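Q: How would the C-alpha cells look for this protein?
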Amino acid sequence: MTVFVVGQITIHDRAAYEKYDAGFMDIFDQFEGSLLSVDEAPIIVEGACDATRSVLIQFPDEPAFRKWFESPAYKALCEHRWAGATSNIYLVNALA
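A: Here is the predicted structure in C-alpha cell form.
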C-alpha cells in the first residue's frame, strides 16, 4: 500500500540545514520514493503551523520507506538536519 511521508520542519540554523539539503537528493534518488512537494510558504487554510518548511514524499509501501529512512547513508545525513532544525515527520497510508 502506498504511503506518504509528511514533514513539518522548523529550521533554526540555515547553514547546518543546507548541508542536509545539499546531500538529500543524491541519497534519496537511490530509493523508490517520489518527492512530491517542498514548500517554505504553505497556505494555512485552518489552524496554525509554525514550521518553516513542509515536505510531502511518496513511497510504494512502508518497507520501501523504511529502507530509505533507516539506511546508513540517510541516517548520517540526518545529523545535519538534526543540527539545523526540529522536525515532525508522519507516515500516513494512502486510501487505496
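The two ends are 7 Å apart (CA to CA).

The chain has a mean pLDDT of 96.

Upvote if useful.
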